[in-house]
Amino acid sequence: MTVETQVSIRMSRRRVLKAGAAFAAAAPFIARATSAYAAWPDRPIKLLVPFGAGGPVDVMARLLQPMLSEELKASIFVENKPGAAGNIGVGLAANSEPDGYTVLVTSNTIVINPLLYKSVPYDLDRDFAPLVDLAGSPTAFAVHPRLGVDTVAEFVALAKQKAGALNYGSAGFATPSHLAGEFFKNQAGIQMTHVPFNGAGPANQALLGGTVDMVSGALPGAHPHLIAGTLKGLAITGEKRWFDLPNVPTMVESGYPGFVLDTYTMMLVPAKTPPNIGERLSSAARAVLQKPDVRTKVRAMGLEVAAAGPRELKARIARELPLWREVVKVAGITPQ
Length: 336
Prior knowledge:
Blueprint: H1 3-39, E1 45-49, H2 56-72, E2 76-80, H3 87-94, E3 102-107, H4 109-116, H5 124-127, E4 128-143, H6 152-162, E5 167-170, H7 176-188, E6 193-196, H8 200-209, E7 214-218, H9 219-228, E8 232-236, E9 262-270, H10 275-289, H11 292-300, E10 304-308, H12 310-331
Helix pairs in contact: 2-10, 4-12, 7-12
């Protein structure tokens, strides 16, 4: 045996011993991760909603909760943590244990907020793993019938006549509905005061109570009121009219070409959540959303089911980020 061969054998043995030591050190962690996955879920799962009750995200989470519970054979509950346009709840989710027991259900404000705040308590790419693009909806511009306007043109005329006296409510600063409202102001050449709320539900209640003159909000919050006639829909920001609101035109039909802005809801988990658990959550949510009766219920609430997986959600976020950056620029919003 040559000297070179002996050296090679000794080096190979050293590598094997090092690899064995590394595996031995990692074995307890691997065993614990495997055990945790096998046991999951063995305690309640929290769907964390960073907005108040009654808005589209809350409605979506509460629709999913019982059926997702059945699909996963687990106890699931919804917890609302509103504030700062969703930043408070999203920050809590980002810092939660990555164990599959905290699931964030939010809107695309999670994408938009870094464009509007100088500092946010999360990094979307670093802190979260995308699971499901749940459903989307257009923004609805709604007024109370007592305002006496029926169309966007009539509202714009009134706003110009009153020269800055009107106001509008949204689901909160930096939300898609806020941006849509500011974009509307810019495109129409009018002045209105923005009144932010902790969710679309409170904003619509304020409109019903006469606190604000108009609400710019995702369709689900206004939908039951538009159907009942307690609120008047001026327009929606979708590509086409909503199926059960045939008398509410789109903004494009109202004379604003290219005015198409959607709010969409999504499900994410902390980034270090075991991939197998993330996949089980994603598969279960998509299975629920693909049921015909669920699709019907979701659509009746003013949302259109997407039921797209992690890869599709990540691609959508990347695709729409430049659009929202342009909307922020056109709306003239300065980061706070």
